[in-house]
Structure to design on (281 residues):
């Protein structure tokens, strides 16, 4: 099932920016005029206000430098993951970003164990979305999965794995979130619910941590169970790693565009061969 998340339009953003500029410049003129009628105390106040006005205009300058390339994210995840913050993270670098979210299963174990399986899970979600024609081959896709792992005996953590796939620009990247401690009682129940003959045992357990939480702590919001157990929301953790992914993607995207422009410039500068002249010689 798909859901749209729309951001402020480019025209509205530019109009707002121009308005702030006009207000800021007019305020600076008024402040400068007022400064000529004040004493030393008034001059200090005016100076401080002018500095604040310059900070405001500098912030607008920074916003105007952000990439205005239209970006539509196709976010692939399970229905229990709140990924609106992924869109917000990309909007920090690509202002004109919208998104559509799809619930697509990976086909791996209900509870993935280990980072390698999580990467594979992201890839399988993307492949399934394209195979089902939910997204095109040219679409920009971000897959989200999570996994648990035992970092030392008796200590389990969960992490998110985010992967961006952009076939058009030949970009594929994956990143991992900050690990969050998971009570061993939850992982034990997940493991114990997995029969020895479980077909997907190589990638994890038959019962997910979310299922265990739903059964053991029915009052806990499964989309934000981190808050209950560790005091940090799932959204915060996903947002931070999504910022990292967006920054890496933006860097690769810009480099790719720059390489394309250089290649086009070289082609334009190459002299045309006079075939007839070559044949005569």
């Amino acid at each position: 099932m798909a859901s749209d998340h729309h951001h402020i339009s480019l025209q509205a953003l530019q109009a707002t920016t121009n308005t702030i500029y006009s207000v800021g410049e007019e305020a600076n003129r008024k402040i400068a005029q007022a400064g000529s009628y004040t004493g030393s105390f008034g001059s200090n106040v005016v100076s401080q206000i002018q500095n604040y006005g310059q900070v405001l205009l500098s912030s607008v300058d920074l916003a105007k430098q952000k990439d205005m390339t239209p970006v539509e994210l196709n976010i692939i995840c399970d229905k229990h993951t709140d990924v609106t913050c992924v869109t917000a993270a990309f909007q920090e670098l690509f202002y004109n970003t919208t998104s559509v979210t799809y619930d697509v299963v990976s086909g791996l174990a209900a509870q993935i164990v280990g980072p390698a399986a999580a990467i594979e899970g992201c890839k399988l979600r993307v492949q399934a979305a394209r195979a089902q024609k939910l997204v095109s081959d040219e679409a920009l896709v971000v897959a989200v999965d999570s996994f648990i792992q035992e970092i030392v005996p008796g200590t389990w953590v969960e992490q998110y794995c985010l992967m961006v796939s952009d076939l058009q620009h030949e970009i594929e990247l994956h990143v991992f979130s900050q690990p969050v401690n998971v009570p061993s009682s939850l992982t034990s129940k997940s493991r114990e619910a997995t029969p020895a003959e479980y077909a997907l045992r190589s990638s994890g357990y038959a019962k997910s941590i979310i299922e265990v939480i739903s059964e053991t702590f029915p009052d806990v919001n499964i989309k934000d169970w981190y808050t209950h157990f560790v005091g940090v929301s799932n959204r915060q953790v996903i947002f931070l790693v999504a910022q990292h992914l967006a920054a890496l993607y933006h860097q690769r995207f810009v480099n790719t565009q720059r390489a394309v422009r250089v290649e086009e410039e070289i082609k334009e500068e190459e002299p045309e061969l006079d075939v007839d002249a070559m044949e005569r010689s």
